[in-house]
Amino acid sequence: MFARSPVLNQSGPTEFVFRVFTAVPEFQALLFVLFLLLYLMILCGNTAIIWAVCTHSSLRTPMYFFLSNLSFIEISYTTVVVPLMLSNIFGARKPISLAGCGAQMFFFVTLGSADCFLLAIMAYDRYVAICHPLHYTLIMTQKLCIQMVGCAVGLALYLSLQLTSLIFTLPFCGHLREINHFLCDVPPVLRLACADIHVHQAVLYVVSILVLIVPFILISVSYVFITMAILRIRSAEGRHRAFSTCSSHLTVVLLQYGFCALVYLRPQSSSSVEEDRQFALIYTFVTPLLNPLIYTLRNKDVKVALKKAISSKGTAAAL
To answer: Which residues form the G-protein coupled receptors family 1 profile domain (predicted)?
Structure first.
């Protein structure tokens, strides 16, 4: 299905090209339309969440503050990848410079890491809300919420800068190198280096543990306490509402952490290049799309806010 073309070995600055999905024009057009529609749905859905949270006072709580930040990160995250991917989908194979590839990797890793840290923060928020409801407003103050988001983004920036700068100190042999992927992700770029990469792989595993394993452990511990607290709720309706909110969050968590772990934490010898591309499609398109779908279709407050906004727009237009 995937087309391969020879790699040119010329003198000049190092540039990269992405491997095309397919050389069949009909499939190229189909993939372009599919990915474009998914991208537009991600933009519209996550923008709607941000707009609803910013314009409705009833949604100005820590949970929705974190949700709006997650939506902003999802928009930025997909925008770093999808437009460039769409521009190359018809097999034009436009070269990307070494600096351009490094910039894409830096922002991709930064936003992906911030996404994982923010999911852990959201789990802590749910833990406080369900296990310590009487102290929730005292603990989850606006100042603390802003500090936690700031720390998540700051740590993501630091880890991404260290990892990206380390990788791009490697020599890449040849003038035009083909990346067997649709973006400048860490594992496929590492495979193109013509030097020993054992230290770089070790650093990648350390960063992956900090970004994936540590937050996932914190989320798991939070949900153990949350489950115990929910089971003590006497009202069946209260238990159902609490489980519904938590199951939505867990769905996004399992998809995000699961597929990222398969790409970044597998031993390199057993890692399949084609599988990595398929898994990357999941966390590039599916999880950012699930975020607005899950939190709007299964969240009564957001649905009510969006309905009010739509009805008020319709009334204003009629006048």
So the answer is: 45-295
Residue range of the domain that includes 119:
96-301
**What CATH code is carried by the domain that includes residue 290?**
1.20.1070.10
Q: Is 111 exposed, middle or buried (0-12, 13-18, 19+ CB in 10 A)?
A: buried
Residue 59 lies in a domain: no
Looking at the 3D structure of the chain, how many domains does it have? 1
Largest CA distance in the chain: 73
What is d(CA 292, CA 53) in angstroms, rounded to the nearest whole number? 12
Three-state DSSP state, 5 = coil
Query: What pTM value is reported for the model?
Result: 0.87
Q: Is residue 209 in some structural domain?
A: yes
In this structure, what are the phi and psi dihedrals at residue 87, rounded to the nearest 5 degrees? -70, -20
Comparing CA positions, the residue from 64, 70, 68, 71 lying closest to residue 129 is 64
Note whether residue 43 is domain-resident: no
Residue 236 lies in a domain: yes
DSSP label at residue 193: B
Are residues 167 and 109 in contact, defined by beta-carbon separation less than 8 angstroms? no
Q: How far is CA 21 from the centre of its chain?
A: 22
Angle of helix 300-318 versus helix 287-297 axis, rounded to 10: 80
pLDDT in tens, 12-58: 567 888 888 877 888 889 999 999 999 999 999 899 889 888 888 87
Pairing of strands 96-97, 15-18: antiparallel
Residue 135: DSSP 8-state: G
Give the pair of three-digit tokens for residue 187.
């594992």
